[in-house]
Write a structure and sequence with these properties.
Blueprint: E1 19-21, H1 29-39, H2 42-46, H3 49-55, E2 57-59, H4 103-112
Antiparallel strand pairs: 1-2
Protein backbone atom coordinates (compact mmCIF):
# COMPACT_ATOMS: atom_id res chain seq x y z
CA UNK A 1 0.00 0.00 0.00
CA UNK A 2 1.45 3.37 -1.02
CA UNK A 3 2.44 5.63 1.84
CA UNK A 4 1.49 3.23 4.64
CA UNK A 5 4.85 3.32 6.39
CA UNK A 6 7.14 6.16 7.40
CA UNK A 7 10.33 6.48 5.30
CA UNK A 8 12.46 7.69 8.24
CA UNK A 9 14.91 5.00 9.27
CA UNK A 10 13.91 3.38 12.55
CA UNK A 11 10.40 4.85 12.70
CA UNK A 12 7.81 2.31 13.74
CA UNK A 13 4.69 4.37 13.04
CA UNK A 14 2.46 2.04 11.04
CA UNK A 15 -0.57 4.00 9.83
CA UNK A 16 -1.35 5.93 13.03
CA UNK A 17 -0.03 9.36 12.09
CA UNK A 18 -0.66 11.51 9.03
CA UNK A 19 1.92 10.96 6.31
CA UNK A 20 3.46 13.62 4.09
CA UNK A 21 4.81 13.30 0.56
CA UNK A 22 8.39 14.18 -0.31
CA UNK A 23 8.95 17.47 -2.16
CA UNK A 24 8.65 17.21 -5.93
CA UNK A 25 12.16 16.26 -7.17
CA UNK A 26 11.64 18.06 -10.48
CA UNK A 27 10.60 21.37 -8.94
CA UNK A 28 12.58 21.30 -5.68
CA UNK A 29 15.65 19.14 -6.37
CA UNK A 30 17.83 20.42 -3.49
CA UNK A 31 14.99 20.34 -0.97
CA UNK A 32 14.10 16.80 -2.06
CA UNK A 33 17.73 15.69 -1.56
CA UNK A 34 17.73 17.26 1.92
CA UNK A 35 14.66 15.22 2.87
CA UNK A 36 16.31 12.04 1.57
CA UNK A 37 19.44 12.74 3.64
CA UNK A 38 17.44 13.54 6.78
CA UNK A 39 15.44 10.32 6.57
CA UNK A 40 18.66 8.32 6.97
CA UNK A 41 17.10 5.44 5.05
CA UNK A 42 19.54 3.71 2.70
CA UNK A 43 16.70 2.24 0.66
CA UNK A 44 15.66 5.72 -0.50
CA UNK A 45 19.05 6.22 -2.17
CA UNK A 46 18.49 3.04 -4.21
CA UNK A 47 15.17 4.29 -5.60
CA UNK A 48 14.66 6.81 -8.39
CA UNK A 49 13.52 10.27 -7.23
CA UNK A 50 10.25 9.77 -9.09
CA UNK A 51 9.56 6.50 -7.26
CA UNK A 52 10.33 8.06 -3.86
CA UNK A 53 8.02 10.97 -4.66
CA UNK A 54 5.21 8.68 -5.82
CA UNK A 55 5.44 6.00 -3.13
CA UNK A 56 7.18 7.21 0.04
CA UNK A 57 5.90 9.31 2.91
CA UNK A 58 7.16 10.74 6.21
CA UNK A 59 4.89 10.63 9.26
CA UNK A 60 3.88 13.70 11.26
CA UNK A 61 6.04 12.61 14.22
CA UNK A 62 9.12 13.93 12.42
CA UNK A 63 7.94 17.51 12.03
CA UNK A 64 7.90 20.34 14.57
CA UNK A 65 4.74 22.39 15.16
CA UNK A 66 6.07 25.31 13.14
CA UNK A 67 6.23 23.00 10.09
CA UNK A 68 2.45 23.01 9.82
CA UNK A 69 0.28 25.71 8.31
CA UNK A 70 -3.43 25.92 7.64
CA UNK A 71 -5.44 22.69 7.51
CA UNK A 72 -2.54 20.66 8.92
CA UNK A 73 -0.53 21.07 5.69
CA UNK A 74 3.25 21.34 5.69
CA UNK A 75 4.78 24.74 4.98
CA UNK A 76 7.04 25.05 1.92
CA UNK A 77 10.14 25.15 4.14
CA UNK A 78 9.25 22.18 6.37
CA UNK A 79 11.70 19.34 6.59
CA UNK A 80 11.62 16.14 8.67
CA UNK A 81 13.55 15.68 11.87
CA UNK A 82 15.40 12.37 11.72
CA UNK A 83 14.91 11.73 15.44
CA UNK A 84 12.79 8.90 16.69
CA UNK A 85 9.70 9.75 18.73
CA UNK A 86 11.01 10.50 22.24
CA UNK A 87 8.18 8.91 24.23
CA UNK A 88 8.99 5.41 22.91
CA UNK A 89 12.76 5.75 23.23
CA UNK A 90 13.19 7.30 26.70
CA UNK A 91 13.96 10.69 25.17
CA UNK A 92 17.06 9.41 23.38
CA UNK A 93 17.52 9.55 19.64
CA UNK A 94 19.82 6.88 18.26
CA UNK A 95 20.66 6.83 14.59
CA UNK A 96 22.62 3.99 13.08
CA UNK A 97 24.59 4.73 9.92
CA UNK A 98 23.53 2.56 7.00
CA UNK A 99 27.14 1.81 6.10
CA UNK A 100 27.81 -0.13 9.35
CA UNK A 101 28.87 -3.64 8.42
CA UNK A 102 31.34 -4.50 11.19
CA UNK A 103 29.63 -6.91 13.63
CA UNK A 104 31.61 -5.50 16.60
CA UNK A 105 30.30 -2.02 15.88
CA UNK A 106 26.76 -3.36 15.46
CA UNK A 107 26.96 -5.11 18.85
CA UNK A 108 28.08 -1.86 20.51
CA UNK A 109 25.18 -0.01 18.91
CA UNK A 110 22.74 -2.66 20.16
CA UNK A 111 24.07 -2.24 23.71
CA UNK A 112 23.48 1.51 23.40
CA UNK A 113 19.90 0.78 22.36
CA UNK A 114 19.05 -1.05 25.62
CA UNK A 115 16.28 0.72 27.55
CA UNK A 116 17.27 2.95 30.42
CA UNK A 117 16.18 2.05 33.94
CA UNK A 118 13.08 3.95 35.16
Amino acid sequence: MVGSYCAVSGCWDLKKESKYRFPNPRKFKDFFKKWIDLCQNGNLFKMSPEKVYANCRVCALHFVKSSFGANNRLTRTAYPQPKLPADENHGISISVPHEVEDSTVKEKLLIMDDPLPP
